[in-house]
Design goal:
This protein is an alpha+beta fold. Helix content is 28%, strand content 25%. It is built from 12 helices and 27 strands. The protein is elongated and about 85 Å long. The chain starts with 8 loop residues before the first helix and ends with a strand. This is Heparinase II/III family protein. InterPro entries: Chondroitin_lyas (IPR008929), Hepar_II_III_C (IPR012480), Hepar_II_III_N (IPR031680). Keywords: Lyase, Periplasm, Signal.
Length: 556
């Protein structure tokens, strides 16, 4: 049901919550910095001077000239994300924050023009209102910007619009519980409730925030949105939330504080030795967390569906790996269950196609499929999306770890065993299923394929080499026929997204099919000697031999 603006006279007539009635802009004295307008909730770009010049640059895209009279239907890049940022009006809020810092009246005057024009042109439920204007995230992010402006504008048009924002944000049908959008909705509602001293809105925002964050962040500190890079966003937004709670003279709930405190463990575990986060789910490989305290554990298993392991902390040459399992795909996740990544000897070796954008394009859809990840595929069986997977075995030692995972994503049991050896850098992966299985190995674009013959694919950069060896089990004989794909478009295969809205060709090794397939990745050499004696496999690396055993569908 649409909120009715003409019924909001009570809210519009309320005295402001702090400091009495606002001073009209034309009569304003030297401004002071206010909690509503300051803090880290505002984006760094565009700058106030950019906005004054009528140029908006969002999401690292080239600036768009909007001029003085803004066209609210503008969509220069045909991009949902660009529209979301545009409609959020946080760029207008930048003007008000800088007005407080500089006293430049022109900043405030322009902010008022922009906001008033937006309110007039985009009424809730209006026939010509932009379709993105009242979506959940732009609405949530716009509310604090308008609250900031309300410190200097007492007019009814702004109070009435804030009341509509509050009504929409309070609507349970509109609320995104257990999601970062829900957190932003709570921050927006709390800001409005505090500004106008509306206890009902304040209480609702705070109680929802606690419940939602307990769903979004589990007791181990894992974000359940299935993209570790979003843990950074949620951590930052929880800082904004706690600041808002304190600005309202309210107590930060203990449950909320505990969830916030737990996130750094997940963030740092998902960070590779080179300082960049492993690109899982909607996470590009160029995210570099800073200022987070890490656990002392070198191997961490999170029940939300992650295994993260490394040789040591603080060493860029440390080996590092990730393994995915857990609940079926949701929110920012991809179909990456049973997938692995591997970093060794200062290089990304096995990576993933990664995150390109949120645009509904064939390429975006491909990046979410199993074929864009390092996973086993059951030949001749239909993939069943959103299937959960289980970690059924783990063995964690100082120099060696092994894990076994299983699911029925193809309608039959699919099992993957992963062993990582650290004394001599080796990763071994055993794939079995109710039928023939093949697997895919996405190689970092910095590495080139040097050779592909006899069941061994050698990749390298400069003089450095790494080898991928594949054996058919239980015979333990090399299996040839590996296909290397790079930059294919029909269908998509052989691509990596190094950053937002970018993609680069990169080699992908597509294995032959076998009833049981053992893949061994050996960094640092182009000629690893692999021998078998019964169920024992010996891998001769440049640092000496590494030995492991096959026990059923497990590696030990």
């Amino acid at each position: 049901m649409r909120p009715r603006t003409h019924a909001l006279g009570l809210i519009a007539a309320l005295a402001l919550a702090s400091g009495g009635p606002a001073v009209p802009a034309e009569a304003a004295q030297a401004p002071t910095r206010t909690p509503e307008c300051q803090g880290d909730w505002l984006p760094a770009t565009p700058t106030s001077d950019d906005v004054m010049n009528g140029e908006l640059s969002f999401l690292d895209r080239p600036a768009v000239k909007v001029g003085t009279k803004v066209n609210w239907s503008l969509d220069p890049y045909k991009s949902r994300s660009w529209q979301m940022v545009f409609q959020s009006l946080r760029w207008m809020g930048r003007l008000v924050a800088d007005y407080e810092a500089t006293g430049k009246q022109a900043y405030l005057n322009r902010a008022i023009e922009i906001a008033k024009d937006w309110v007039e042109k985009n009424p809730y439920g209006g026939r010509t209102t932009n379709k993105y204007a009242w979506m959940d995230h732009p609405t949530a992010l716009r509310a604090p910007a308008l609250v900031c402006l309300s410190r200097y504008v007492p007019d009814a048009w702004l109070k009435d619009s804030l009341a509509v924002h509050a009504k929409v944000l309070a609507d349970p049908r509109f609320y995104k519980i257990g999601h970062n959008h829900g957190l932003d909705q709570d921050i927006g509602l709390l800001r409005i409730g505090c500004r106008y001293n509306q206890k009902g809105w304040k209480d609702l925002a705070l109680s929802r925030m606690v419940k939602s964050m307990k769903l979004d962040i589990d007791s181990e500190g894992s974000l359940r949105e299935q993209a570790p890079r979003y843990a950074i966003y949620v951590h930052d937004r929880l800082r904004v939330a706690t600041d808002t709670i304190k600005d309202c003279d309210l107590k930060v709930p203990d449950d909320l504080a505990r969830r916030w405190d737990g996130l750094p463990k997940h963030i740092t575990a998902a960070t590779q030795p080179n300082g960049y986060m492993v690109p899982l789910g909607d996470g590009p490989p160029n995210i570099q967390p800073a200022g987070f305290t890490h656990s002392s554990e070198t191997v961490q298993v999170f029940k939300a569906g992650y295994v993260f392991g490394r040789t040591a902390w603080g060493d860029p040459q440390s080996a590092y790996y990730s393994i995915r399992f857990g609940p079926g795909m949701k929110y920012h996740g991809h179909e990456d269950h049973l997938g692995v990544t591997y970093y060794a000897q200062g290089r990304n070796l096995l990576t993933e196609a990664g995150f390109h954008s949120y645009e509904n394009t064939p390429y975006r859809r491909w990046t979410m499929t199993p074929e864009a990840h390092n996973v086993p595929v059951v030949v001749g069986k239909r993939f069943r999306g959103r299937t959960p997977s289980s970690l059924v075995r783990r063995s964690v030692g100082k120099d060696r770890q092994s894990f076994t995972l299983t699911d029925k994503a193809y309608g039959v049991s699919r099992t993957r065993a992963v062993l990582v050896n650290h004394d001599q850098d080796v990763m071994a992966v055993l794939d079995t299923a109710g039928g023939k299985v093949r697997n895919l190995w996405h190689i970092d674009p910095s590495l080139k394929v040097v050779s592909n013959a006899g069941g061994s694919v050698v990749v390298g950069e400069g003089s450095w080499r790494a080898t991928l060896v594949q054996l058919s089990m239980p015979s333990c004989k090399p299996i040839g026929g590996q296909k290397v794909v790079r930059g294919q478009t029909n269908p998509y295969q052989g691509w990596i997204s190094p950053a937002y809205m970018q993609k680069a060709p990169a080699p992908v090794v597509v294995s032959p099919a076998a009833s049981s397939l053992l893949t061994i990745i050996v960094p640092g050499t182009a000629k690893p000697d692999v021998t078998c004696s019964g169920r024992t496999v010996i891998v001769h690396t440049s640092d000496g031999p590494a030995t492991f055993k096959i026990s059923g569908s497990d590696l030990v």
